[in-house]
Amino acid sequence: MSTQAYPQLLAGKTGIITGALDETSIAWQTALRAHAAGARFLLTNTPVALRLGSLQRLAEETGSEIVPADATSLDDLEKLYAAAQERFGQIDFLLHSIGMSMNVRKNRPYTDLNYDFLQKTYDISAVSFHKMLQVAWKRQAFRRGGSVVALSYIAAQRAFPKYDDMTEAKALLESIARTFGYHFARRDGVRVNTVSQSPTPTTAGSGIAGFQKMLQYGELLSPLGNATAEECADFIVVLFSDLTRKLTMQNLYHDGGFSTTGLSEALLDLLPDPPAATA
Ligand SMILES: NC(=O)c1ccc[n+]([C@@H]2O[C@H](COP(=O)([O-])OP(=O)(O)OC[C@H]3O[C@@H](n4cnc5c(N)ncnc54)[C@H](O)[C@@H]3O)[C@@H](O)[C@H]2O)c1
After folding, report:
1. Is the CB of 72 under 6 A from ligand 1?
2. Where are the domains of the chain?
3. DSSP state of 201
């Protein structure tokens, strides 16, 4: 990516970016672009992800500090915001880019979920968003005009059988964005939105059974094709910017037109012709 010509939409803004694991991560690409757009931020992920991933390289590239935090731990989140506030004062943006399901990992089908795993899915993939917002709320961490974005998927609205228990996690995540979005708008003039992104070849995405076919299906159905992680990152930068000041409590489809296309010619062409009718 050429960073020289990147619009300086986030000049002077500061924030927190969660969920960058490696270069494929939506959060990684967002960090690169937010940096190119003039922002300063803290990067955070779990201690395990910090060991397994390559976050240090991203931190060096973007001049950022890493603060380890498990997003399900209120103690860790308090420390994360304390570090952000110590460095920046109040912050302007937060990216929640966190998802994990043990049911998906262990290939448990939707009709045979393990309920301990399900609780974990909710806690990591959705309730962590509420926790990040609630800790920020109590600490008055966001500057007026700030913007929060979390990543979602269209399985929250439509049945995608292989998306497993992440389906309900995303429905919950989107609901939290609306309800907390109301409170943040009223008190602090802060926006909260979710971006419903195309299937994207990342570590989390590739864990879904049949992911390569979902990717292919998305490519064939979406008139603009699947949105990439880089394109998603560009969109998130716009959402963090002052150009979207009155956009809040929305789930925004960033999917090349997938969500509003019934059938594409590309998909239709793949189906065999029906047998000719006999008189
Ligand atoms: N890849 C896709 O197809 C796709 C499509 C739509 C939405 N999303 C969403 O995008 C977001 C980012 O995922 P990605 O696709 O970039 O994959 P990714 O694997 O790169 O990112 C997921 C991140 O979640 C982090 N994480 C897991 N448990 C955590 C915890 N307890 N505390 C803090 N962080 C934790 C992981 O370490 C990882 O960095 C997720 O919410 C995902 O559901 C992905």
Report:
1. yes
2. 14-258
3. -
User: Parallel, antiparallel, or unpaired: how do β-strands 91-96 and 142-152 relate?
Assistant: parallel
Q: Whose CA is nearest to atom 20 of ligand 1?
A: 25
- In angstroms, what is the span from residue 36 Cα to ligand 1's centroid? 22
Q: Is 235's C-beta closer than 6 angstroms to any atom of ligand 1?
A: no
Kindly state if the Cβ of 30 falls inside 6 Å of ligand 1. Answer: no
Hey, what are 194's tokens? 């979710």
Tokens 């002052």, located at residue: 242
The reported pLDDT for the residue numbered 277 is 78
Measured in Å, residue 99 CA sits from the centre of ligand 1 at 4
Evaluate: CB of 91 within 6 angstroms of ligand 1: no
Instruction: Tell how far the Cα of 203 is from the centroid of ligand 1, in angstroms.
Output: 8
Report the chain (279 residues): mean pLDDT per 10 consecutive residues: 81 98 97 98 97 94 98 98 98 98 96 98 98 98 98 97 96 98 98 98 91 96 98 98 98 98 96 83
Residue nearest atom 26 of ligand 1, based on CA coordinates: 98
Ligand 1 atom with the shortest distance to the CA of 125: 41
Which class does domain 14-258 fall in?
A: alpha beta
Please list the alpha-helical segments (H only) found in the chain: 26-36, 47-52, 55-62, 74-88, 102-105, 115-122, 128-139, 166-188, 203-206, 211-221, 229-240, 265-268
Indicate the angle between helix axes 55-62 and 26-36, nearest 10 degrees: 10
Report whether residue 151 contacts ligand 1, using a CB cutoff of 6 Å.
yes
Distance in angstroms (rounded) separating the CA atoms of residues 78 and 136: 8
CA distance 22 to 78: 25
Would strands 251-254 and 91-96 be described as parallel, antiparallel, or unpaired? unpaired
What does the pLDDT read at residue 233? Answer: 98
